[in-house]
Model the fold of this input.
Amino acid sequence: MPLIYCFKTPALTDAKKNSLLSFAAQNIFDDIKDIGTEFCFYIESGEALSAIEIDILKWLISETFEPEKFSLESFLTHQPSTINHHGLIEVGPRMNFMTAWSTNAVAVCHACGLTKVRRIERSRRYQIVRSQKPEFRKEKSDAFLNMIHDRMTECPYPEQLKTFETGIRPEPVYYIPMKEKGADALRKINLEMGLGLDDWDIDYYHNLFVKDIGRTLQM
Done:
């Protein structure tokens, strides 16, 4: 099933937007005039949702006090693009894990009868409005990206997501035979994988798994 898209504006409070605008004007874009923001909700469903289910989903996401700030279409221009010459940037969670926010959102959907919903993730989209509209160079976009996202848990979306699949498959589980080969087995894997364990760490895990727990360490 293709993802369902919903949009809500703004993604920042006025105070946070003004702070970001001021910093960007001083450090990145000297001709910046405004920053438009919105959330984009990516919804994955196991089956097609009925009209009633779509209405329930819209009601849950839109928040009943501000229905005019919710839409199935983007509030910003150049919706299909993200990082481009028009200055539309989108950042969101990395796709290799389901976020805690998504887990809670799916639980709420299921409690409301939307059991077909499998995953919901939320990205933030920024429309940079400039007076001169010059070419949106990569070094400028990279500098702005560093201001607006956490590189540990988030990443830029070069284009609007079509699926949550990344094509990346996890590596197999490693079994470290410390019961048979002692602490040297952990030292070997520590060097091979660059784990950064020191002697104290190695002695601790060796004693924990071999002497206290009595089972093989898995990684």
